[in-house]
């Protein structure tokens, strides 16, 4: 057996496809018996490819659904013969500039730029010659982006409540200036319009994604002269605040009030009582999708998609649990919290829950 034949199989060269399966099996068996490991550095020098993808992120958190993005990227990259290297800049401009230099110096085959929160970013001009995908962020420069389909996800949340018979649905959205909150408001309006229900501004509140924010705004909605029969929140954390406001008023979920969250953060949604209906952010699938786009754009892959502003949206799936029921036949009567004010204050959710 020639050294060229062995090289074709070990290096997964396309020419290996010209060999018989029996020949390839013999080579692989010899590799296994000899415990042979190819010299990846030497291969990189020969092929001018590192078989690696650089991931630049502004922040790594301990939140499981955000870390699942990394898992999605790694699993898809490994399956395609690539390694993922993650560099965190922490919002530090000098560190971000250094990370760009590292990517160029180490000759990464491709780059993923990702952010903890969906927002617009400015892509360094130095990356113009490298296949690049923006993950959970976007730019005005025509770079390919992978984003969660927030608008349709919010619409699906509202549709869960509409399907249960609710027509007066409160919405505690996230921070007004964020892209995700803007998309979710549009999805909420889309669902109401499709159902023939007028958009009522008095039912829409702008929170800050924290539990106490959900509690505060739910209090306003539930104590209004004509309270909603259901409330959807911009994330599960604020939905927990809605649960607490309902509990203070002696309202049962879902018998008296239906609630839908967003994110499917299991710490809040799956373990709430009753279990919270929500919408799952597809972080794992987004990570895989970003790598798929990059592998197609590397020298070994097909030509990458072309066009300015090309966006791949990954669907956010509704998760129906136990927090949705039909609306009460009689309207909810507005009432103050059932507990004394000083005790209710002591029991209020913390300002910045962990």
TrEMBL record:
<dbReference type="InterPro" id="IPR028082">
    <property type="entry name" value="Peripla_BP_I"/>
</dbReference>
<keyword id="KW-0678">Repressor</keyword>
<dbReference type="InterPro" id="IPR046335">
    <property type="entry name" value="LacI/GalR-like_sensor"/>
</dbReference>
<keyword id="KW-0805">Transcription regulation</keyword>
<protein>
    <submittedName>
        <fullName>LacI family DNA-binding transcriptional regulator</fullName>
    </submittedName>
</protein>
<dbReference type="GO" id="GO:0003677">
    <property type="term" value="F:DNA binding"/>
</dbReference>
<feature type="domain" description="HTH lacI-type">
    <location>
        <begin position="1"/>
        <end position="47"/>
    </location>
</feature>
<feature type="region of interest" description="Disordered">
    <location>
        <begin position="317"/>
        <end position="354"/>
    </location>
</feature>
<feature type="compositionally biased region" description="Basic and acidic residues">
    <location>
        <begin position="339"/>
        <end position="348"/>
    </location>
</feature>
<dbReference type="InterPro" id="IPR010982">
    <property type="entry name" value="Lambda_DNA-bd_dom_sf"/>
</dbReference>
<keyword id="KW-0238">DNA-binding</keyword>
<dbReference type="InterPro" id="IPR000843">
    <property type="entry name" value="HTH_LacI"/>
</dbReference>
<dbReference type="Pfam" id="PF00356">
    <property type="entry name" value="LacI"/>
</dbReference>
<dbReference type="Pfam" id="PF13377">
    <property type="entry name" value="Peripla_BP_3"/>
</dbReference>
<keyword id="KW-0804">Transcription</keyword>
